[in-house]
Structures are given as structure tokens and as C-alpha cells.
Write a structure and sequence with these properties.
Elements (H helix, E strand, L loop, with lengths): L4 H21 L8 H4 L5 H19 L10 H24 L2 H21 L11 H18 L3 H8 L6 H27 L3 H10 L2 H15 L2 H28 L1
Length: 252
């Protein structure tokens, strides 16, 4: 990868957008900024670049998403599945067609949003269900490892619980803090960053404080209903991005 002004600016913008989303919604929407990175580098290089940056973003986000914003009962159910899913995702990354995973995840996510729209865009509060939480954790672990897209499975479990916007964002943030720490080493082993990537990584660290803070400011301005509507809208964007990644690979 050639390190020039275009690469630096585009990558910095992509990382800043990811930081902004983490500050606003706690995590899970990293894929929103990845299209920018794909303009200047291949997906594996982008994964290696982002893996340590995700950890930096998460640790800085703890300044805003403190333990008081975590739903501990949900994390207890979700995190063990996340650990298993990341392990499974690491092996699937090496042997399975990533495009197929992207397409399946896109279809499931769009179906979930479709059901929400059929209910008139309201959150029908549902009780916690352990098997569903474990499945969400495992699926999120697999997709975050394979495609940095662990948000949809987690959102499909958390959104119907009707958590407050702060608890939703805080729980999501803590969930992905654990996940990003766990997947950092496997991603670095898969991508094997070279000198230019490490330099770019250091430059992009400067985007973390401002990006997370601005996102957190947006979160403070959104009311409960707006927060949930934006999350569902982001799920649609994420699903369409996954669908594009999967189908364009087959068409190409």
C-alpha cells in the first residue's frame, strides 16, 4: 500500500466516522466507515489497520460509556457466545467464502428491519431469552471477525428489549470492547501489517478523541425514539453494504 496524501486523508476520514458512530451508538456500526477505507486499500489490509484502532476507540469510549450504562444481565448472556464466535470466525475466515456470510447476514438483517416496519416502527418490548442471547453473541462474534459487521446480530437481540438509549449504547460499547480486544491479535496475524500501515495507524489515532466525543454529543441530543429509529436505519445501511460486498464478488 502506497502511503500518500490521498490514502492518509481517506483513511483518516473513515476512522473518524467509525469513532463518531462509536461515540453516538456505542459500537457495532464500524462497517459504516469501511467503504471509505476500501477506496485506498484491500479489505484484509483495512482489517489489520482497524484491529488495534478499535481497541483504542473502545478504551477511550469508556470515558463516556461507564459501568452504570451497561446491562450486566445481558452481557453475562452475550459475552461467552461472543468469545466462541470470534474463535469460530477466525477459522471460517481462512476456509469459507466471506461473500456467502455477507449475503446471509444481509438478508437476515433486512428481514428483521422489515418486521419492525410492519409493526409501525415501534419497539415491541420482549423479555430476555437466554438461547437467543447466546445465538446473538456467537453470530456477532463470527461476523465481527469475518467482516467487522458484528452490529446486526447484537442489535437484533438488544433493540427488542426496549433498553434506555444510554444502556443500549453502553452495553453495545462494552460488548464490542471485549470483542475487539479478543480479535485484535488474530486480525494482525491474518493481515500482517507492514511499515506503511503502522504509520497510517499512528496518524489515525488522532481521530479517536474528537470522533468519539462528537458522536457522544449527538447521542445526548437524540431522544429515545430518535435513537432507535437511527439504529434501525443504520442496520439497513449495514445490510445493504454487506449485500453489495457479497453479490458484487460473485458478479465480478
Amino acid at each position: 500500500m502506497e502511503l500518500n496524501i490521498t490514502t492518509v486523508l481517506v483513511t483518516f476520514a473513515g476512522v473518524f466516522l467509525i469513532c463518531f458512530m462509536k461515540g453516538a451508538f456505542g459500537g457495532g456500526f464500524a462497517i459504516v466507515g469501511i467503504p471509505l477505507l476500501s477506496l485506498v486499500m484491500d479489505p484484509v489490509s483495512a482489517g489489520g489497520l482497524l484491529a488495534p484502532l478499535f481497541v483504542a476507540m473502545d478504551l477511550f469510549s469508556l470515558r463516556y460509556w461507564k459501568p452504570s450504562t451497561w446491562s450486566r444481565p445481558d452481557l453475562v448472556l452475550l459475552v461467552p457466545g461472543l468469545v466462541v464466535g470470534i474463535g469460530v470466525g477466525y477459522f471460517l475466515f481462512r476456509v469459507l467464502d466471506h461473500r456467502a456470510i455477507s449475503i446471509v447476514m444481509a438478508v437476515v438483517t433486512l428481514s428483521f428491519v422489515g418486521l419492525w416496519l410492519l409493526r409501525g416502527g415501534d419497539v415491541a418490548v420482549q423479555p430476555r431469552y437466554s438461547p437467543k442471547a447466546v445465538a446473538a453473541g456467537v453470530t456477532s462474534g463470527i461476523t465481527t471477525m469475518v467482516a467487522h459487521s458484528g452490529g446486526p446480530p447484537l442489535a437484533m437481540y438488544l433493540l427488542p428489549l426496549g433498553l434506555s438509549k444510554q444502556v443500549y449504547a453502553g452495553t453495545t460499547s462494552m460488548f464490542f470492547t471485549v470483542g475487539n480486544i479478543l480479535k485484535a491479535v488474530p486480525w494482525l496475524a491474518l493481515a500482517r501489517p507492514v511499515g506503511a500501515v503502522w504509520t497510517l495507524m499512528a496518524i489515525c489515532l488522532l481521530a479517536v478523541p474528537a470522533g468519539v466525543w462528537l458522536g457522544w454529543r449527538l447521542h445526548a441530543r437524540l431522544d429515545q425514539r430518535q435513537m432507535y429509529r437511527v439504529c434501525y436505519g443504520l442496520l439497513v445501511f449495514t445490510a445493504l453494504k454487506l449485500l453489495w460486498d457479497g453479490t458484487s464478488g460473485y458478479v465480478g
